[in-house]
Amino acid sequence: TSYYNVIISYPILFLWKSLQAQLPWENCQNPWNTPRCVELGGPDQLHMMMNNSLLSVSERLRTPADEFFHNEILQISDGIGSPGGIVWPLFVCNLLAWIVIYCCIINGVESVGKVVYFTATFPFLILAVLFVRGITLPGAAEGIRFYIMPQWSQLTDLRVWADAAVQIFFSLG
Question: Is 153 annotated in some ligand binding site?
Answer without folding.
Answer: no
